[in-house]
Write a structure and sequence with these properties.
It is a single chain. This protein is mainly alpha-helical and 441 residues long. It has one domain (21-60, 72-439): MFS general substrate transporter like domains (Growth Hormone, Chain: A). The chain contains 16 helices and no strands. Mean pLDDT is 80; it is low at 61-78, 238-245 and 254-264.
C-alpha cells in the first residue's frame, strides 16, 4: 500500500525553508556589509577633534611625550577665545574623508562594471585596514590625513558597489543595508567614545578596530548567498541573460513588493547601458539626488561646521568629550531612521530637506548668539538631525530601486550615491569659512 508522503519530504517544503534561510542570510549579510563599510568613515569623523589635537600638541614648543598623550586624549584647547577653537576646523578631516569618495562616485559608475565584485571587496578591505594603521601609527598629522583618505576610498567604492549589488538580491536587502550603515554610525562613534573615555589612547582604539575590515571580507565571501548571475570574478555581464533576468525577477517577487516585469527597457533594448543611456538615467535621478544632497549639506554643515563651536564650558564633559557625544547621538538618530524602512516609507523627500535646513539655520544662530541654555537641548536637536538624515538616505534608494527600470537599476543605484557625498563635500568647504569667522570673534 502506498505510504503518505512525509511533510519533510515535500520538495516544496524544503524549497520554502531554503528560501527563507537564504533570505535571512542575505539580509543579515547586507546589514553587516553596511556596518563594516561605513565604520572607518564614521570613526575618522569621531576622531577628527583628536587628530587635530595631535597636530596642535606637535606644533607646541618642545612637547614632552606626556603632554602629547594628554592633548591627543582630548583635553580642552589652550585657545582662550570665545569658542575654544582648534587651529584648523574639523572640516579638514571631513574633506579628507569625503573628497576621494566624491571623486569615486562621480566617475566610477561609468566604468566600475568592468571590475567584478569580488575584486572590489578585496580592494575595499585593504584600503580600510590601511586607514586604521596609518591614523593610529602616524608620526605626523599629514599621515593621519592620508589614512583618512584611504578610509574614504574604501567607503566610497564600497557604498556604490554594495548598492549596485542589491539589484541581484530581493529588494528587502536594501533595508538591511540601510540599517547596517546606521549601525556603523552608532558602533563607530559609540565604541570610539567609550574606549577613549575609559582611558585607551586613540592609537590603541584604532588598532583594535582593525577587526572590522576583515569582518566585511568574511561576511561577503562566506555569509552571503549570491545568485549565479552575479559577476563575482569575471566581468561577463551574465545578469543580462534571460536566466539572470528571470532569476532577479523571482527574487524581487519574493521580497513581497509589487514589481512589474521589465526584462528589457521600455524601447526593448537589452545588454549593458550605453554612455548616452547612462546620461539619460542620471537626468531622471536628479529628483532623488538633489533633495538628498540638500539634506546632507545641511546636516554635515552642522556636524563639522557647528558642532565643535557648540561648546559649554565648566561642565562635567570636556570640549573633546562633548564633540564625541554629539557625534554619537547623531549616529543613534541615523540608525533608528535607516532601520525604519520596514515600518514607514517617505516619498516626499523635499520635506526632509526643508526640515534639515531649518535645523542648520537654528544651530547657526545658536552658535552666533549662544542662546541655548544647556547641553541637553543640543543633544536633542542633534538626535533629531540624525533621524532626518537617515530617513532621507534609506527612502531615496528604496524609491530609486522601486521606480527604475530593471536594466538601468544597477547603474542608477551606483550613480545616485553621489548625492550625499556632494552635499557633504560642499558642507565641508562652507564650514571652513564659518569656522574662521566664529573663531575670529
Amino acid at each position: 500500500m502506498e505510504q503518505p508522503a512525509s511533510v519533510n519530504a515535500d520538495p516544496a517544503h524544503h524549497s520554502g525553508s531554503n528560501d527563507r534561510r537564504t533570505k535571512w542570510r542575505n539580509w543579515t549579510g547586507f546589514w553587516l556589509l553596511g556596518l563594516c563599510n561605513n565604520f572607518a568613515y564614521v570613526v575618522m569623523l569621531s576622531a577628527a577633534h583628536d587628530i587635530l589635537k595631535k597636530q596642535e600638541s606637535e606644533n607646541a614648543t618642545a612637547p614632552t611625550p606626556a603632554s602629547v598623550g594628554s592633548n591627543f586624549q582630548g583635553g580642552n584647547s589652550s585657545n582662550s577665545g570665545r569658542y575654544d577653537c582648534n587651529p584648523v576646523s574639523t572640516a579638514a578631516v571631513l574633506l579628507a574623508d569625503i573628497l576621494p569618495t566624491l571623486v569615486i562616485k562621480l566617475f566610477a559608475p561609468f566604468v566600475i562594471h568592468k571590475l567584478p565584485y569580488g575584486y572590489r571587496v578585496l580592494f575595499c578591505t585593504i584600503m580600510a585596514a590601511t586607514s586604521f594603521l596609518f591614523v593610529s601609527l602616524s608620526p605626523a598629522v599629514w599621515i593621519s590625513i592620508l589614512g583618512v583618505i584611504f578610509a574614504s576610498i574604501s567607503s566610497g567604492l564600497g557604498e556604490l558597489s554594495f548598492l549596485s549589488l542589491t539589484v541581484f538580491f530581493s529588494r528587502d536587502v536594501l533595508g538591511g543595508w540601510g540599517s547596517g550603515t546606521g549601525g556603523a554610525g552608532v558602533a563607530g562613534a559609540l565604541l570610539y567614545s567609550l574606549f577613549t573615555q575609559v582611558g585607551l589612547s586613540p592609537q590603541v582604539t584604532l588598532l583594535i578596530m582593525l577587526v572590522v575590515p576583515f569582518a566585511m571580507l568574511m561576511t561577503y565571501f562566506i555569509l552571503l548567498v549570491p545568485p549565479p548571475s552575479l559577476p563575482q570574478w569575471r566581468s561577463v555581464r551574465a545578469e543580462y541573460t534571460a536566466v539572470g533576468s528571470e532569476e532577479r525577477r523571482r527574487l524581487m517577487d519574493a521580497s513581497g513588493e509589487e514589481e512589474q516585469a521589465k526584462p528589457t527597457s521600455e524601447d526593448g533594448s537589452t545588454g549593458p547601458l550605453t554612455f548616452s543611456e547612462k546620461l539619460h538615467v542620471i537626468k531622471g535621478l536628479l529628483k532623488f539626488v538633489f533633495p538628498l544632497g540638500v539634506v546632507y549639506f545641511a546636516e554635515y554643515f552642522i556636524n563639522q561646521g557647528l558642532m565643535e563651536l557648540l561648546y559649554f564650558p565648566n561642565i562635567f564633559l570636556t570640549h573633546a568629550e562633548q564633540y564625541r557625544w554629539y557625534q554619537t547621538l547623531y549616529q543613534v538618530g541615523v540608525l533608528v531612521s535607516r532601520s525604519s524602512l520596514c515600518c514607514v516609507k517617505i516619498r516626499k523627500l523635499w520635506a526632509l530637506s526643508l526640515l534639515q535646513v531649518v535645523n542648520a539655520v537654528l544651530l547657526l544662530l545658536a552658535v552666533r548668539y549662544q542662546f541655548f541654555p544647556n547641553l541637553w537641548l543640543v543633544f536633542a536637536i542633534v538626535l533629531y538631525e540624525g533621524l532626518l538624515g537617515g530617513a532621507a538616505y534609506v527612502n531615496t534608494f528604496f524609491f530609486i530601486s522601486k521606480e527604475t527600470e530593471e536594466r538601468q537599476r544597477e547603474f542608477a543605484m551606483a550613480a545616485a550615491s553621489v548625492g550625499d557625498s556632494l552635499g557633504i563635500a560642499l558642507a565641508g568647504l562652507v564650514s571652513f569659512f564659518v569656522h574662521r569667522y566664529f573663531c575670529s570673534l
